[in-house]
Amino acid sequence: MDEQVKTKTTDNPDPFTNEFSRQIWEVTYKTQNENSITDTWKRVASAVANVEKDDESKRFYAEAFYEILKDFKFIPGGRILANAGGSCKNVSLVNCFCKGARVLTDHGYVPIENVVKGDLVLTHKGNWKPVVNTLKRNYKGDLVVFNDSMLSDELHATVEHPFLDSSGAWVPASQVKEVVFPKNSNLKEYITIDLYDYFKNLPKGIILYDTTKIWTKSSFVGGNGAQGVKESETIDRHIKVTEEFAYILGRFAGDGSSFTAPQNKNNYFSKHAFNICFSKKEVTSLTYCKKILEETFKFKVHINGQPTRNFQYLRKFNFIVATFLHKIIGDKSYNKRIPTCIWKSPKSVQFAFLCGFVGADGCVTQKGTICVTLKNKTLVQELQSLCSMVGIFSRLSPKKLYGKMSKYQTDQYVGLYINKKFSQILLPYLKKIYADNRLNSSFCEKACSSKTSCNCMPISTKIIAYEGEVYNLSVQDDESYIVNNIVTHNCYLSPAPKYDMDSIEGIMEVLKNQVLTLKSEGGWGLNCSFIRPRGSYIEGIGARTPGAVKYLELFDKSSEIITEGPGEYYIESKEKTPKNEKKKIRKGAMMLCLSCWHPDIYEFITAKQKPFHLTKMNMSVNVTNAFMDILNRVNELVKNNASQEEIDAVDFWQLRFPDTAFEKYKSEWDGDLDKWEKKGYPVKVYRTVRATDLWEALMQSTSNRSEPGVLFLDRANETHCANYIPELQLVGTNPCLTGDTKVAVADGRTNVTIKELAEAGRDVPVLACDNSGSIVTKLMRNPRITGYNKDIYRVTLDDGNHIDCTSNHKFRLSDGTYKEVKDLSIGVALHTNTLSVEEYKRYLVQEVLNTEITPNLQRDSVQQLCEEAKSQGYEVKIDNDIVLVKRVCEECGKEHFVPFTHREIAFCSLECLNTHLNKEKIAAKTTNTDSNIISAEDWPVRFVSSIEHIGKQDVYTGTVDDVHNYCVGMFETVNEQGHPKFYMLNNQQCGEQVLYSGGCCNLGSINLTAFIEYDETKHAAVFNFQKFYDIIPYCVRFLDNVIDIANLPLEEYKYMAENYRRIGLGITGIGSALMMLGLKYDSKEAKDFLTKVFDVYNFLGIRASIALAKCKGAFKGCNPAKHADNIKYTFRHLPKYILDALQKELLETNGIRNSALFSVQPTGNTGCLANNISGGVEPVFQLEYYRIVGVPIVPESIKDKCPRFWEGDFTPNNYFKEVKYADFTYLSYVTETGQEYQIHKDRGLCEKVKIRDYAYQWILDHNLEYPQEVFTTAMQLPVESHLEILKLVSAHLDSAVSKTINVGKDYPYEQFKNVYLDAYNSGVIKGVTTYREGSMSAVLQTADSKDDVNPTSTSIIHPTITAEKRPDILPCRVFFRTVKGISYYFIVSFLENSPFEMFIDINEDNIFDEDGEWVERRRIIPKTVKEGTLKKLGKATFEFVSKDEKFIYKIVKANESSDKATLTALARLVALNLQSGVSVKEIIHQLSKTEGDFTSIVKAINKVLSQCAGKVDLGETCPVCGGKVLREEGCKKCYACGWSACG
Fold first, then answer.
1. 837, 981 in Cβ contact below 8 A?
2. How far is CA 1249 from CA 1179, 1185, 1364, in A?
3. What are phi and psi of 9, to 5 degrees?
4. Residue 1032: which of 1125, 971, 1096, 1090 has the closest Cα?
5. Omega of the bond prior to 546 within 30 degrees of 0, cis?
6. Whole-angstrom distance, CA of residue 587 vs CA of residue 519
7. Which of the residue ranges 451-460, 559-568, 1248-1257, 1531-1540 has the most confident prediction, judged by mean pLDDT?
8. pTM exceeds 0.70 for this model
9. How far apart are CA 954 and CA 952, in angstroms?
10. From CA 1492, how far away is CA 34, in angstroms rounded?
11. First-to-last CA distance in the chain?
12. Distance from C-alpha of 804 to C-alpha of 541, rounded to nearest angstrom
């Protein structure tokens, strides 16, 4: 073995440190026969190791996996812990057939390995349905063998593949006792054939036709050499496949042929004539068939051969009919098939074909048995299935020829036998059609009275071992097909329907997939953007749809039903409890998202504002890069004081959906709007909104209710290492450039292509444009290849230069906007920047001397840059963390140092550059002294002259900081004076696309706390890095093995898992581990520690997957070179020597085992199992806190006290009282022992359990003394700290990370919104979720919360409150706010240091002279006035006096205008609440919900109230220094150390 177990510890009999964790194990993960969690670990380890190749390996890895599981070092996902090795789940893979199984399609039997998407197959309902997917995989295990003469051939199936039985149930292959044969669907309509369809590809003029007739035209050469043109007879173009015509086709298939006439030179037709053979006893049948042919085709048919001979022929020379018969049936005994038109015809037509075939090439024995003997095995098998479809059982048997015919025996013949019983169904038809004496008349009379028909029969099977390839299909709607004449389930479902997704059937299929997934205890997610929006018209029923959000209630309710269990109506039986019975079904998480372009997006955003609505799912909005870029641009315009017109030109967003009336909507709409629009299909714009308004709605909902989350799925593609795989291709394509495109690099070079930059693999400074169009220098990160073999379009300019790129690449237009190539029109003006060579050099030297710019362009570590510079032969020095290299000045010869990022610049100063340029000018006899960077006079624009598709190429791009664009082209030209110049086009970098569907989670996390040891000699905590290093390869192998034992509920999950082997190795317990080590969560030391941990985690995880590929094979379609390039980008933070080593190993091994490796996911339940460690990347929530835990069965002790909530009764009683938390209410009961039970409408019965974090307990146990700041918890951390850690972790993952950013109750809303923008602008974060304390019902509650309501309180009743009487004089403060260009004053009076009342008015008035002429508009209260007193003079009359008594103003609330009355009403309502004891916080919260015309003024009121809150003693201590915490201006602050809850 190439691996060894590094660590082996003694079994800990009880690794649990608290009863709550033990309870989690007992309820969720323990099986009946397990006595301790050690037994659970051994069960899981043994099951996962069981996929290894031999017994020795199985034993070795069972022990190794047990070691990593023990003591919670590695914690697999809950589904693995609960089910691996348990008897509840049959560990199975995809149910399939072996190669060679024959599937009945509409063009006959086809080997299953040759069936392709789109083929029509017969289903168990008698329908012809398309194949929507195919599957091929390797399999090792038992097979069930079906071998009976009733089958068309021996059939091998995996043991669990379902077959239909006579009761209509689907039975696993291992339990099959009988099989069902195919049946006809009782079609009534005849099929009509258009003969022209078979000749469409012939050159024009060969086939002549009109609406009813068809004929041929051909040239000829006569015997005398004469030449001419000859037209054939005209025949009917449209042929109805009736019983008579089917009989003709059967006769031709049984004993007919088509041939080519040697004398005819026409090569456009495969056949020129046809024969149908009859015996001399079949005169009546011959005459009958001649009549049918002549009536059908309207031509004369000839009889060849003499009646005295044994055989006669019906023969006709006709190119069209002969070729037609050859194409639909064949012409030789070995290639004939039953034509498609027969399979799809009514039962009577199929009977007639059988009669024709049996009459031509069958025989009836004296016992009444029908027999057909053929060498064409496929045709015999098709005949057998056709017999089954008309209710006739038949058997197949090998047959040898005897007598005179035995000399022709060269191959095995196959006989089709229909016994006496079932022959009776067919014989009456033979009697009717033949009118011969071939059959015994008395026998036929008996047969005519028989009605026997059946479509099932008993069968026996056997089991064999097998290792090799197996196959399966996915069939639309009916999910079944016919294989070797047996009805079987397709057992390969698609998680999203491939047809009319938006139909009721399509939505129901998604619902079924959800139920199957949740039933398997897995999590489930859906992008519901495919559902048409509310109010969309449905043609079929003449009504309008309720919309996407309404349909989500289906998925919400189904989750509740699936995970509920038996409920309280269940009466426990007296029978013995099964060993595999669980106390609680594990509930998988559900997540739904909707794209920001969907017309229902506002409804989706606010869906959870309604309490207890859609409670079973997490909801997120997929926000595209295009949307976020609009927000960034609007912010930039506002920052630069742009006009409202300029802002409006950018700030708009279309809510749109495909035109549901479009003909291809049902067949091609799959939820991908980008793909739909790229095809040019129509969309309907439902609304055009401001992007900022939509963002505001999203932020408001997220702030109030912590949902929906925000996903940047476009950004996620950037770290998708396997995005070159077609099946893993993300929706849409990246807009990019071809490799020969020149990039305007800012390091002195003028002729560098993007392909060269990608091959160099280094970040490089480039020229880009700011919002005004001026040139700026920015860093292009990771120039890279982004697509292979993409469609390329050439954009040619009016001067002949061109750019080659993808159709969705964006160029800057002359008006500053960007448009994709597909949207450009001929003549459109593109923005250009023009530079002379000297301008370019001067600009770069100026920039080199700018010490503020250069550091921003140096993004790699100093060590990395030093190593690279030295490798290129430069002498290196470092100055203020800037890497400098030695150059010799090209003018004066002086040695000097320049930044490595600008190493191409070789002038020591501007003086030397100017001297050098002047020499060049003199040499060129020029006097040009132009020194502007941008030459606006020279070619400010270029015009598009043509756009054309030129083929396919690989494409490239790079990521540019801040501005997200760069200049390309570097087209050389001259100005009017003949001086050399070049101009550039500006283009946007590519946007990234969404992740592929069908992938499934296979998660497990390494628990950092398990590697922290107590060093007694140092009395300190230390992290054992060696043990951490050793465990990583085993964790990767463990998760890879899980794929091979996983009982995934949907076949597409299985297909994606087994072919692409995506795993999610994570890290958990980060917050607890940092606290145990004495590191504050957001400190520099903590970040350094995490960087080291994650670097090792990446390096060893990738190496382990490469090693697995060496012994087990790489994932499907792995391209080592491309994957290595993507790894170097995704994990670019790793040192270069490590990336080079990984690239070398990957190329030498020729692949990697897993298409994705790293993911940090939520680990709440398993974190509790592991003794209450912090989840994933989260900080410690609280040192001690309450967890609200679901109780699956009502305890006997409270059963008589508990409302029957399972029946919908949530009425409070004498025990369970109503409690309000945030805007939720629930029922609460506290027992005599102090145990609290709660009943939530969305969760049922819960209990409130007090939890102590593992780290805190560990620190207490070891008597460690740490500074107070180490104990900073989630709600106490600044938001910026959450973002910094999230960014650090995201940069180390090729998949997702789950992280909640906790914000305090009083965190300012404007800063809250910036959290999401900052996350997007980080460039690596793929999604954000926040939780504002108290915003919704929480699973976790702080143990010391001052806002907890007394759980024993009665129902909430609001008593009558009398406001305090106002003193005559009160101190007051004055505030000024400008709202929509109008200045307002706000006067707030105070009673005992608390706000008491508010006055608001416009702070401007018109001043007139003595003659009534207007003089000016003057402020009423000067802005210098800040404080004073407010005296009540009488009813609605007050006098304000400034603090220095220099300003006096009388406030009179009488005869107000309507506008002023509105302001007064708002102020009085605020005052009433303040005087009634409502907290300032609650007033602000309620006012923030205001919408409509008052929104702006209400925001101003909230800001004033926040400032008025003052310094309020909250009775709390600072989490950092222990000092007193005061509330000032709406935020908690500590004035002892500077800590603030608002960051």
1. yes
2. 20, 8, 41
3. -120, 165
4. 1096
5. no
6. 9
7. 1248-1257
8. no
9. 7
10. 61
11. 53
12. 48
